Each structure stands twice: as C-alpha cells, then as structure tokens.
Amino acid sequence: MASRFPFYLLVGLLFLVGTALSIHRHMTFDIPWLPGEQRQTWSIEARVDFVAQGEEVLASLAIPSTQQGFTQLNQTAASPGYGLSFVERDGAMRAEWSIRRAEGNQQLYYRVDMLVDPYAIPSLPVRPPAIRVNVEQEPFATAANQILERAIERSATPYTLARELIAEFGNQRQKAELLAQQKSKSMWTVQLLQQAGVPARRVHGLFLEDGRRRQQLTEYIQVFDGEDYELFNPETGAQGQPHNLLLWQYHSGPILELMGGSNSNVSFSMIQQEQPFNIALSQKFADNQLLNFSLYSLPLEEQALFKNILLIPVGVLMVVLMRILIGIKTSGTFMPVLIALAFIQTSLITGLIGFLLIVGTGLLLRSYLSYLNLLLVARISAVIIIVIGMIAIFSIMAYQFGLTEGMKITFFPMIILAWTIERMSILWEEEGPHEVLVQGGGSLLVAIVAFLAMNNDVIRHLTFNFLGIQLMLMALVMLIGNYTGYRLLELKRFRPMLRDDHK
Amino acid sequence: MSEVIEKQSWWQRLAERYAHPGRLSRMGVLGMNRRNISYISRYNPRRLFPLVDDKLKTKQIALEAGVTVPELIGVIREQHEVRDLAGIVADCAGFCIKPANGSGGKGILVITGQDDGGYHRSNGSIAGIGDLERHVTNILAGLFSLGGKADVAIIEALINFDDCFSGFSYEGVPDTRVIVFQGFPVMAMMRLSTSDSNGKANLHQGAVGVGLDIGDGHALRAVQFDKPILLHPDTGLNLMNLKVPHWQTLLELSVSCYEMSGLGYLGTDVVLDRFQGPMLLELNARPGLTIQMANGRGLLPRLRQIEALGKKNRMTPSQRVEYAREHFSERN
C-alpha cells in the first residue's frame, strides 16, 4: 500500500494555508468573523458662509482625505449655481467652487463620510514641510530666543523640544504675553521649532462628537522627527492625536481661500452613523486601486455573483457528507446543489412547490412521450421544451392570480430539470415508484440541507470574505474522500446480520 | 427516574434499528466506502472496466479464454440493421435481446418461443416483430445504458435451465454470484427471482439472496429486502434445502474469470445450463454488498486472509479453488 503521508501532508498544508489566509484577512483588513457587525461612520458637513461682492467668486476649501484612523467613503458638495471640482494642490485635497457672478449671502456645503478604520491607509503621503526661518523684529526676537534657548536646554529630541516650548510659554508669562501681541502662540511655537531645525506646522482638526452643529476647527501642531510625526495640543502640550480628532487640514495651506467675497466663516456639523461592515467595506474598496485581493474591489453586480459562486463548495460539501457519511441516494450527483442554488433565489417554500409542480407535471407528460418511442436525444429535447413551456405557463398563471412569488420559478435550471424528469421517468418504469420516491426524496433532502447551509448568514459571510475558507473546504472534502468506515444507513441495513449473534 | 427510563428506551430503540459500528467491524462486514477505496479502486484498474461493462466484450474475451458462455446469435450495431432482426432470430426457438452496456438487468427481453402468432415473452405476453424492433431501437439509442450513450444490442441463445432449481425461482433465471478476489472465490450467493422482483434477479428489486457455502454449495441463509427469510415467498419451498450442483466446475469457471479479465475484485454471475453445465452470464467490477447478508458473514476476514497470502505463492486456478473450499467452508 502506497504511503498516505503525501496525502495527509497536502490536506494539512491546504488547511494551514486556508487558516493562515483567513486570519491574515481578519487582521489586516479588519473583517469580522461574524456577520452583522457594525462600523462607525461620521457624516460631516462643512458650511461656508460669506457675502459675495457681485463679481466672480472662487472659494477653495481644504478637505480631508483618508488618513490614519479614518477612511474617506464618499464626498458630495451642494451649492446652487456654482461650478465644483475636487483638486489636489501641494499634496492636499481641496474643494473649489466657482461662479461668474454672485451677490449677497452665499452658502456652500461640503459633506463627507468618514469610516472609523484603524487600518486606514492614508491616500496622500504626509511629507514634512520645508524649513523656513523668519527674521523677527525686536523686542519679539529676543523674547522668543530666550524661550527657545530655555526649551532647548531642557529637551533632547524634536518631540521633547516641542513639549518644552509649549510649557515654556506657560512658564514665562510676560514674554508670552508680549509675543502674543504679534502672532498666536501656536504660530510662535511652529516658528521657533523651525528655527531650531525641527520641521513643524499648524494643522486643523475637528473633534467628532455626535450631533454637534456649528463647530469650529481646533488648532494642533504637527512636529516631525524624520518621517514620523506627532500632534501636540498648543495649549496644554499634550502629545498624540485624540481618537475622536479628525484632521481636516493637515498640509500647509489655509482652510478657506476666498476670492470675490468677504465675512467668510466655515462651520461644521456632524452625525455619527452605524453601518453594516460590508457596506462600509464596499465603499472603502470601491475606488481603492491598491493591490488588495478582495472581492470588495469588484463592481456590486459581480460581487453578488461571486457571493453565490463561492457558496457552491459549501453545497458540494453537504452532498459529500450526505452521500459518504450518511449514504443518502440522490438522482444525479450534484443536482441537489443546483436545486439548492435555485432555492436561494426563490426562497425555500416557493422553490419546493415550484420544483414539485414542474417535476410532477413533467413526469406525467414524459410518460406520454414514452409511448411515442422517440430516440433519446430527441426525447430529452422534447422534455426541455416541455419544461420551458411549463415554466412559462406557471409564471403567467401565478401572475394572473397575483402571486408574484410564482414568477421566481424561472430561476430553476431548466436543463437540469429536464434531465431530472428523464431520469425519474426511467427509474419509474424500471424500478417502480418506490425507487423514484427514495431517490427523488433523497435529492430533495440533500438539496434542502445544502440550501440551509448555503443560506446561513454566517456561512455566506465567511465564504465571501475569507477566500481561505475555500482551501479548508477542499481539505475537508479530500479528507472525507478517504473515509473507509460505515455509512450511517449501512448500520441500519446490516442490522439484521447481528440478530443471529444474540441467539 | 422517568427520565432515565425514557432515555433507556430511546437508546434501545436506536440500538434496535441501527447496528453498532464496532460490532459490524468485529464481524468484518465490508462497507460501501471501504469497498470503493480499499478494494475496487485498488484492485480493479480503471482501463479494464469496459471489458465487464460491455457484455459483448466480456463475451469475446470469455470465448478467447475458453470460458463457457451462452451462444451468441447475432449483434445489431446500427439502426439500419434492425430490419434484419427477424432474419437473425428466424431459426431460434428461444432467445434473449439485451443491451451490451445495460446495468442491473435493464432492457433484457426474453423470448421463450415463436410461432405464427408472434414471439412469446417470458412473462406470457405475445410480442410482434415490431415490438422487438422497437426494443432494439431503444437499446441502440442508449435507453438502458449508463449515461444514455449509444449502445449495441446482443441477441443470444436462451439458456436451458437446469431443473434442479425448479420451485426455487419464480419465472426468472436463478443465477449464482461468486465474489472472486485475486483469483480466489471468497463468497457465493444464489439469486432467486420472486413475484416482487418481477422475475428479475436483482436483490434490491425484491429477489431472494441465498448464501452458499464455498465448501460444497449448500444454502446457509436467505434474505429478501435485506431481511432473513426461510421459505421462498412465492413457492413456499424451504430455501435451506437448496444445493448447487456442479459446484467445483462452477467455482473453477468463476475463478478463470480473474485471469481472463485482470480484475482483482470481481463478481461473476453464473447460470446452470441443463446440457452445458455452468455458464458465465456476466461480470461485475462493482459487486454489491448484500452477499454478506445472505451469508451472515462479513467479507473482510476472507479478503484479508487472501491479502496476507501475498503474491509470493502463486497458485493455479484449481489450487485456489481447493484453498477456498478448504478455508472458507462453514463446515469446519
């Protein structure tokens, strides 16, 4: 006997790779093991108010894109009469509205949906700003330099320097107040950091709180250490990005640039939404060109198609289990899987009634064909036409009676039905109605079991999201193909053999 | 307390209906899965299957090997040859028409005699030449073959049944199935048709299976629909009185099919002709498991005993028959 080692190695390998792939997807793409999990998304609306001066207007608003912690799902802008485009400038995204002539109060709306996503991959790389050193007038220069020197003494790294600078502004109140006459504290901090050779800039973030309206952006200081950066609160010196802080404008540049208007103001309102993770994920991957092997990158229609295709191995596994471990007879090896696929489209009860109706009527008509003594291919072709005719008639009848459910009968695979009728009919003639009931009932039972498995939410979720499951199913099917034990129904069949031993 | 009783009765009911796999295994009962994996796919090379699935090929290799088979009257391969049917059978009193690739006894038409009125079928009805031609057309179209592929019709001489089985079989042909494993006859059974089986010798259609002692061919047990019985359901004869004559010749005929076909796990169907003795009817590369129930014995111990012999000590066919009659008999 040949060694079974390579076989078990292959099965083990398939199983391991399948498990590893699934775990990898769970970890890197944040896909939950169970369906129905919700993902938090934020809908944020920015409203730009200004007074137009009766000439051409160009408004350019900084807008957020996918960043650490948040994935941008979709964005819209509403503003009657204005032309709109989303442009990238200096490594940052901006929404630009333009109009030839406008007068009076104007409102522009920009709305974006952000998914809370710890695995977000920033769409635009974060680059440190170029270092620029301003020469300041006295007495500001001296005061600033003193604060900087003190902070440099107490610090070791760019981050500690930033922290010490902010703290120093608190300690040396008089100097701070002097400096504040010229520019804001955060501007001074950034400038002094630049002066010390540390790339830094001011960024604007939005604190996300459910249901808030008319919010303003909060200023933060972004300090770079090589490629890494940290955010600092310019008031408290606290380091790090609060989890509910969305960076709105995080490249050099103003939040709003306005030409042809005055008295501008930007305010924000936001609501939190819970979305099923799969909707959130399809939005996330919809325009993601990254090399990620995910079905979510396909168009929705193909996704729906794949959802069913990836279920077939589950149905096939059920057939394997029922035939090899239990020993149920079916007519046609995988006919039950195809019937189960049709049940998914029609729902179980409608599908069962439709199936029995078509096969039953088909058997009646087929028994007449027996008398005509036709050649096989012609006879099956005739049965196919009969099946199509029956489906058409039943659909029309169902529609006339107002049973729209009945229309779903068209989902049945017609060729398969024709072969089923042919096989059952021959079985009836040769082995009698009992065998037809056994095999037909067995097929339906397996089809129902396959349907229940394939229609299960958890299984649908797993097969669609974790392609590794397919390898595990493969390993399982191969393992069952190696089973030499008794089938369940054989235990019943061979039962009379044991009775003698008792006596 | 009541729960315990209920549980027991539930468990007893289960044990009443289902055999414990451990006990079946201790009896050495061969299951379908093990038969397929450990015997059929291991000992029967796929390329040899057509030899047994096609009865015409079986007949040809049997004739070459000198194995006794029913006389071949004619073969109809094409639709246009169907018109020649009346000419082919003109000189035969009794004959049967069967598909070369039929399975499970499907499509076999038996004519016991012919006169001016037409052809007398075995079930008593009379058929015209048109009916026979239609039957042949159906065979050619593949009505009875696996997968519906085009087939060939074989016309062969009727077997003159040995009278020794009269009363044991209802209408049809009693035949003897012998499982031949690597050239050793390991288990045998006689299949008797009944009114339930419509004169067919198929066990799942209701024929009676009688287990036969490999040692001398006498009846051991009988089953119908997988249940033990003692009397023939139609004729009421005690099945335990059955004893197959020409036993040595029958076993030797079966065993020679191993060399002839090359199949290591084989079912041979043999009938007894009044004049020519045992005749090979057909071979089966996937013999069923009911033979174990008819014998009340599992196949596995005997199969393993043969496997343990190994290929080293090659025996002649008659030595193998001798070995089997000695070791697999219930008498000792």
Automatic annotation (TrEMBL), chain A:
<dbReference type="InterPro" id="IPR025840">
    <property type="entry name" value="7TM_transglut"/>
</dbReference>
<dbReference type="InterPro" id="IPR025838">
    <property type="entry name" value="Transglut_i_TM"/>
</dbReference>
<keyword id="KW-0472">Membrane</keyword>
<feature type="transmembrane region" description="Helical">
    <location>
        <begin position="466"/>
        <end position="486"/>
    </location>
</feature>
<feature type="domain" description="Inactive transglutaminase fused to 7 transmembrane helices">
    <location>
        <begin position="24"/>
        <end position="182"/>
    </location>
</feature>
<feature type="transmembrane region" description="Helical">
    <location>
        <begin position="434"/>
        <end position="454"/>
    </location>
</feature>
<dbReference type="Pfam" id="PF14400">
    <property type="entry name" value="Transglut_i_TM"/>
</dbReference>
<feature type="domain" description="7 transmembrane helices usually fused to an inactive transglutaminase">
    <location>
        <begin position="254"/>
        <end position="497"/>
    </location>
</feature>
<feature type="transmembrane region" description="Helical">
    <location>
        <begin position="338"/>
        <end position="365"/>
    </location>
</feature>
<keyword id="KW-0812">Transmembrane</keyword>
<feature type="transmembrane region" description="Helical">
    <location>
        <begin position="305"/>
        <end position="326"/>
    </location>
</feature>
<feature type="transmembrane region" description="Helical">
    <location>
        <begin position="371"/>
        <end position="397"/>
    </location>
</feature>
<dbReference type="Pfam" id="PF14402">
    <property type="entry name" value="7TM_transglut"/>
</dbReference>
<feature type="transmembrane region" description="Helical">
    <location>
        <begin position="409"/>
        <end position="428"/>
    </location>
</feature>
<protein>
    <recommendedName>
        <fullName>Gonadoliberin III</fullName>
    </recommendedName>
</protein>
<keyword id="KW-1133">Transmembrane helix</keyword>
UniProtKB/TrEMBL annotation, chain B:
<keyword id="KW-0067">ATP-binding</keyword>
<dbReference type="GO" id="GO:0005737">
    <property type="term" value="C:cytoplasm"/>
</dbReference>
<dbReference type="Pfam" id="PF14397">
    <property type="entry name" value="ATPgrasp_ST"/>
</dbReference>
<keyword id="KW-0547">Nucleotide-binding</keyword>
<dbReference type="GO" id="GO:0018169">
    <property type="term" value="F:ribosomal S6-glutamic acid ligase activity"/>
</dbReference>
<dbReference type="InterPro" id="IPR039523">
    <property type="entry name" value="RimK-rel_E_lig_ATP-grasp"/>
</dbReference>
<dbReference type="InterPro" id="IPR011761">
    <property type="entry name" value="ATP-grasp"/>
</dbReference>
<protein>
    <submittedName>
        <fullName>Alpha-L-glutamate ligase</fullName>
    </submittedName>
</protein>
<dbReference type="GO" id="GO:0046872">
    <property type="term" value="F:metal ion binding"/>
</dbReference>
<keyword id="KW-0464">Manganese</keyword>
<dbReference type="GO" id="GO:0005524">
    <property type="term" value="F:ATP binding"/>
</dbReference>
<dbReference type="InterPro" id="IPR011758">
    <property type="entry name" value="RimK-rel_E_lig"/>
</dbReference>
<dbReference type="GO" id="GO:0009432">
    <property type="term" value="P:SOS response"/>
</dbReference>
<feature type="domain" description="ATP-grasp">
    <location>
        <begin position="59"/>
        <end position="310"/>
    </location>
</feature>
<keyword id="KW-0436">Ligase</keyword>
